[in-house]
Amino acid sequence: MVERTVVVGFGNLLMGDDGVGIHVVRSLAERGLPRGAEAVDGGVASLEILGSLLDAGRIIIVDALAGGGEPGSVYRLTPADLGQAETSPGFSLHDFTLPQTLALLARTASLPPIVIYGVEPAGMDPGLELSPPVAVAAGRVADLIIADLEDCFDA
């Protein structure tokens, strides 16, 4: 049984689909998480937020991820998967990429188990709403995370 799982959503709510991680963690907070799990709005500060969560038993990250799929595609990855794609220029939608953040933290501390849910954006235009395919994917990711948490805390 994992002591504490933190679900972190990253993104910029002002840039349409880039805010998908924030939309997912807000949805999870509204739905209610199992005891021992918490949802955190990470904004665009991956290094700062993840660095403060190294004492968690497990971290689940949700972010927009340009992986080359159709808009709304959902990717379930590990930090090792991101490390393989670190040289891809379009992989991250933030200034300090998630692979760079995780690699830096791994050099300075022991990382807890991490699962990453990435959602392929349809667009990054200014706006507060998610595109239709990303909104559907956000709901699917929230359901997947709830299932992950139930498996973790019921074990």
UniProtKB/TrEMBL annotation:
<protein>
    <submittedName>
        <fullName>Hydrogenase maturation protease</fullName>
    </submittedName>
</protein>
<keyword id="KW-0064">Aspartyl protease</keyword>
<dbReference type="InterPro" id="IPR023430">
    <property type="entry name" value="Pept_HybD-like_dom_sf"/>
</dbReference>
<comment type="similarity">
    <text>Belongs to the peptidase A31 family.</text>
</comment>
<dbReference type="GO" id="GO:0008233">
    <property type="term" value="F:peptidase activity"/>
</dbReference>
<dbReference type="InterPro" id="IPR000671">
    <property type="entry name" value="Peptidase_A31"/>
</dbReference>
<keyword id="KW-0645">Protease</keyword>
<dbReference type="GO" id="GO:0006508">
    <property type="term" value="P:proteolysis"/>
</dbReference>
<keyword id="KW-0378">Hydrolase</keyword>
<dbReference type="Pfam" id="PF01750">
    <property type="entry name" value="HycI"/>
</dbReference>
